[in-house]
Design brief:
Number of helices: 13
CATH superfamily of the largest domain: Argininosuccinate synthetase, chain A, domain 2
Order of helices and strands: EHEHEHHEHEHEEEEEHEEHHHEEHHH
Number of strands: 14
Mean pLDDT: 93
Strand content: 15-25%
Shape: elongated
Distance between the termini: 74 Å
CATH architecture of the largest domain: Alpha-Beta Complex
Radius of gyration: 25 Å
Structural class: alpha/beta
Helix content: 40-55%
């Protein structure tokens, strides 16, 4: 799995505080005798990092490094994805997928600074995250050794239940039980939930599956209206109040969650070729995505808008497939950003019973011309030109039909 490691070597581990990475610290220490440097990336999990830091040390980490990456995560990864309308298979706003390349970049930085010989992560051999971590690390540090215990022969654990028992034997506290054995990954952009009863795609997720978004039955009977302001495609204020990127997501996550917005139940196509059932919550990201899409509809010309829709699919795949640090993703990003120059203005959203509904939009760059769109007496459109337009537009159909009719004769 990792040839050449000795007891004097150092391994940098992507540590989350969850079941797998908590067990991995002790497991790596027992197997190799190496020093384990745990890197805890704060992407907005909503947890106190100090207890997680102490838990990593208790599990055997020789050093724990905590990185507050929330602003960088939103500015450098989530907001570009928002501008590209990156949504995988129509439902998944890529919260986990967007976080992995940033974490990998920090792992490489720490490994280089600490003189580490290898980087370890807790991704499985049949998941997407292994690709995202491995490809990102290879793109940034091509000679770095990569250790992924969960896909190795030495790992030995065949179920999460066995890992839980291992953790208990070594006095490692873990945030799961046999009754609630979900695998979670949460950040400011959203949360992904899998395992347990969710592995049966026929069964409805129980109430304890969700963490950020209320059931529709528990949402208010009156809507909330929120006005989101954008500058060059980036959300900058809510109801006229300028907020930091973190402040914007925290505010919209709260509002969206209260109104039951942002739940997704998806049977998705993983990169490795299997289908999996995943549950996602992304209240704030969902509101922003729908608002941004509405503003673009107001300010972008038809050809740019339609071409961008087709391009968004490829951009989304690049993120999902772990290719963030690729030249193609950078090139697609350049195209998207070139269109954001005039994506400035405000969108008024109605939040109610699981829906984020755009009910108003305005921009100094709006291409909406009331004198052309209206059917009132102020209509300035030359209706006679419509007849000539139809003749030209339909000319190929007319010529083709004449040929077909002649052949039938």
């Amino acid at each position: 799995m990792s040839e050449g490691l000795t007891r004097s070597d150092r391994i940098v581990l992507a540590y989350s505080g969850g079941l797998d990475t908590s067990v991995i610290i002790k497991w790596l220490e027992e197997l190799y005798g190496c020093s384990i440097i745990a890197v805890l990336a704060d992407l907005g999990q909503g947890e106190d990092m100090k207890p997680l830091e102490e838990k990593a040390k208790a599990a055997g980490a020789s050093k724990v490094i905590v990185k507050d990456l929330r602003e960088e995560f939103l500015k450098g990864f989530c907001f570009p994805a928002l501008a590209a309308h990156a949504v995988y298979e129509g439902k998944y706003l890529l919260a986990t997928a967007l976080g992995r390349p940033l974490i990998a970049r920090e792992l490489v930085k720490v490994a280089e600074k600490e003189g580490a010989n290898a980087i370890a992560h807790g991704a499985t051999g049949k998941g997407n995250d292994q690709v995202r971590f491995d490809c990102s690390i290879m793109a940034l540090s091509p000679e770095m050794k990569i250790i992924a215990p969960l896909r190795s022969e030495e790992w030995g654990f065949k179920s999460r239940e066995e890992e839980i028992e291992y953790a208990r034997r070594h006095n490692i506290p873990v945030p799961v039980t046999k009754e609630r054995p979900y695998s979670l990954d949460k950040n400011l952009w959203g949360i992904s939930i899998e395992c347990g009863i969710l592995e049966d795609p026929w069964k409805e997720p129980p109430d304890d599956t969700y963490f950020m978004v209320r059931r529709i039955e528990d949402t208010p009977d009156k809507p909330d209206y929120v006005v989101i302001g954008f500058e060059k495609g980036v959300p900058v204020n809510i109801n006229g109040e300028t907020l930091s990127p973190v402040g914007i997501l925290e505010r919209l996550n709260d509002l969206g969650g209260i109104h039951g917005i942002g739940r997704s139940d998806l049977v998705e196509n993983r990169l490795v070729g299997i289908k999996s059932r995943e549950i996602y919550e992304a209240p704030g990201a969902t509101v922003l995505w729908l608002a941004h899409r509405e503003l673009e509809a107001l300010v972008l010309d038809r050809e740019s808008l339609h071409f961008k829709e087709a391009m968004s699919l490829k951009y989304t795949e690049m993120i999902y497939y772990g290719l963030w640090f690729s030249k193609l993703r950078e090139a697609l990003d350049a195209f998207v950003q070139s269109l954001q120059v005039r994506v400035s203005g405000e969108v008024r959203m109605k939040l109610y019973k699981g829906q984020a509904i755009p009910v108003g939009r305005r921009s100094p760059y709006s291409l909406y011309d009331l004198s052309l769109a209206t059917y009132s007496a102020e209509d300035a459109f030359d209706h006679k030109s419509g007849e000539h337009f139809c003749r030209l537009w339909g000319l190929p159909l007319k010529v083709g039909a004449r040929v077909r009719y002649r052949r039938q004769e």
